[in-house]
Amino acid sequence: MRIRQIRNATLVIGYAGSRLLVDPWLEDKGTGMCARSPWPENNECRSPLVELPCPVEEVLAGVDAVVVTHVHPDHFEEKTAALIDHALPLYAQNETDAATIAAWGFSDVRMLSDEGSPFGALTLTRVPAQHGLTPATDCGPASGAVLIAADEPTLYLAGDTVWYEGVAANLERFNPAVTVLNCCGATMASRGRIIMDEEDVLAVCQAAPWTQVVASHMEAVNHGNISRAYLRTFCDRLGVGKQVLIPADGEVLEF
């Protein structure tokens, strides 16, 4: 298994002979969304806050399929959709997202299944996520995904979620060797925190000490407040530093 952190939640994953593009967000720096955060100094900044670490063509080279955990403007949006081969298989979390993606021109939109969707030598399984501290304040449906193959370690992409009983159940059910967490502490002025922060990362480490955590969705959106440096200091201080990898944009991890 080979995971390349691109930017925000965008990953390129080599797994069981396939190359998967996860949550592609390929807009130029400062040309996308501007969420309303609790921090006024951030609210004039348009995301993404940083450029891609490599050309778009390099991100897209050799991709066999696309996985979109949910259609939000920092995960997949129309300008990015226009850059991607519309004939590629694309996995969406539900019928609403699938219809949006089909309207953007994709001809092979498939559904992530709770029972598992085969693709080549691997299986993709949709798992629950909670995109906010409570169901009443979340940002709408979001999902995670689990990748399983005979000769690969199991990979859990938690997606945009906070720590809650659903994540604990996913860890227990799949026993993943590697878990990718979206954990910049993104917070909306109107809804509160909507993805994991440092305490949620610690909770995952304590609940599943066997899993190698990879911190993603970092330092790219104006409503996030957890930096890589802060998360590294926190994890080292709490004794889980070796369990948590925090890749820079463009960095490759192999397992």
Assigned CATH superfamily: Ribonuclease Z/Hydroxyacylglutathione hydrolase-like
Counted by DSSP, the helix tally is: 6
Strand content: 25-35%
Q: Tally the beta strands.
A: 16
What structural category characterises the helix and strand content?
Answer: alpha/beta
Q: Strand order across the biggest sheet?
A: 6-5-4-3-2-1-16
Molecular shape: globular
Taking the sheet with the most strands, its summary is: 7 strands, mixed
Q: Give the tally of structural domains.
A: 1
At the first level of CATH, what is the class?
Answer: Alpha Beta
CATH architecture name: 4-Layer Sandwich
- Give the H and E element order: EEEHEHEHEEEEEHEEEHEHEE
> What name does CATH use for the topology?
Metallo-beta-lactamase, Chain A
The portion of residues assigned to helices is: 10-25%
Uncertain stretches of 5 or more adjacent residues? none
Radius of gyration: 17 Å
Average pLDDT number: 97
- In whole angstroms, the N-to-C terminal distance is 5 Å
Q: How would you describe the overall organization of this protein?
A:
By secondary structure, the chain is of the alpha/beta class. It has one domain: Ribonuclease Z/Hydroxyacylglutathione hydrolase-like (Metallo-beta-lactamase, Chain A). Helix content is 19%, strand content 25%. The protein has 6 helices and 16 strands. It has helices at residues 56-60, 78-81, 95-103, 165-174, 198-207, 228-237, and strands at residues 2-7, 10-15, 18-22, 65-67, 90-92, 109-111, 117-119, 122-128, 143-149, 155-157, 178-182, 187-188, 192-193, 212-216, 244-245, 252-254. It has a 7-stranded mixed sheet, covered by helices on one side. Helix 2 (78-81) links the parallel strand 4 and strand 5. The longest helix has 10 residues, at 165-174. It is globular, with a radius of gyration of 17 Å.
